[in-house]
Design brief:
Distance between the termini of chain B: 49 Å
Number of helices of chain B: 11
Number of domains of chain A: 2
Oligomer: heterodimer
Largest interface: A-B, 24 and 25 residues
Number of strands of chain B: 10
Radius of gyration of chain B: 21 Å
Number of helices of chain A: 11
Distance between the termini of chain A: 50 Å
Radius of gyration of chain A: 23 Å
Helix content of chain B: 40-55%
Helix content of chain A: 55-70%
Shape of chain B: globular
Order of helices and strands of chain A: HHHHHEEHHHHHH
Chain lengths: 270, 284
Amino acid sequence: MIRDITIGQYYPTNSILHRLDPRVKLIGTFMFIISLFLFQSLFGYIVVTIFLVSVIKLSKVPFGFIVKGLKAVIILLLFTVFFNMFFTPGETLWQFGVIKITKEGLINSGFMAIRLTFLIIGSSLMTFTTTPNQLTDGLEKVLKPLNHIKVPVHEISMMMSIALRFIPILLEETDKIMKAQMARGADFESGGLLKRAKSLIPLLVPLFVSAFRRANDLAMAMEARCYRGGDGRTKMKPLRYHSRDYVAYLSLLLYLGAIIALNIMIKKIV
Amino acid sequence: MQIIFDKINYVYSGGTAFARHAIKDISFSIEKGEFIGLIGHTGSGKSTLIQHMNGLIKASSGHIYFNGEDIYDNSYKLKELRSKVGLVFQYPEHQLFETTVFKDVLFGPTNLGLDKLECELRAYEALKMVGIGDDLLDASPFELSGGQKRRVAIAGVLAMKPEVLILDEPTAGLDPKGRDDILEQIAKLHRESGMTIILVTHSMEDVANYADRLFVMNKGELVLQHSTKEVFAHYQELEKMHLAAPQVTYVMNALKDRGYAVTTDATTITEAKNEILALLRAKG
């Protein structure tokens, strides 16, 4: 059940997207998210959809797997749709007491849902195609300039990579402890809210104990190898741009350019 | 027959890129009161297999019968099964959570819905069985030594009075003394209460001393299921699966190769000792 959450997971396929420099993917994802909120017209949607579909095709991650990741945020999606639908003022289409649906609300909620879906798909594509280690390496490199204003970039990225690394370990541990307690007759699924919350104690206490134990072990192991922060630390595999990365940057710029140009054109026509 | 597995298959993450056929077409039956050793290399599917026995994992195909009933029947109560088939996981001490040893052992019987007195009686008995003294009953389980923690965790399962006890590498990470203590206590349980025991392990010496029959797993398949002596006679086959016979088996085989008139079916040190002494006496 916990394993069904695919959002933020790495999906190994041997695609060009997987081989791209993580910096390209980070900046690309950032640009994609911004672009989602730049356009207003229907044409914009078409351009974004074409872009997203071609990136999905390039990534070779099965579409079904991506959609599965959306399940986790369906509640958020429904909320957005709901509020946009009922609380946007405008031309009334249907009314029941104080509740009314407006034409603008309907359009707004539809577009908002598409935007959110695209946003989630876009950002999960980054995690599908980038290993956590690459991701934090890229992040460290991209944020490096912030070092000058005393932001501990290395420490932040190290914490991130450790946190990411621990997610699957803790998931596995949860699964194991859950099973062990179920073997002792524990019941996690029935009963009221209070009973269910109480039934989590036999799961959470061992989980925390083991998380602390693992953190302790890791700190010891790092210290034993003389880890002392990022100063003067070199990398075994330093990030280097290849020609494919420049091509990717160029296509990103073209995409962004297209969106902006479209925006200006539409404004002129209107 | 107490437990029957009929053509059990299990596929992890079926239908995704991560799918893995963990268990392939496994069939066997276990009689009441048997002591079974389950051996296999890391990743051979041992742990997955035993989790089928109390219904924690549902097989992708096949049937499991416990005391003649199909556990996948809709009307079958899995909770009841779990009280009858006790499963002690690897590193069971990681599941301890209560404030005192006694309360932790109480968790199992309380979940069965027994009355308070019965629960406490069972918890007390179980702690006695694994050799935890009265002085430790009110200690925090997190303050105990590794071996003690493990015994408390095993008591937590024993307190449910299971008919079958499955132990997944109960000796992993323990010192030789802790190892012998736990194995000896398991053997005693088997002798005195007639409990069916399934012991999962890497260590051939462990199973050689105690098990009546051995199940050998390799890459998700059950490749051998014979008496302990028969399995160890196939030690060349075992080596192909990155397993080995007990060291004494090798000693006896080496002796035979050098022309000494010994039989090679000794699997425990005591047996080997008697065999060699007999030979010496015959010569002397």
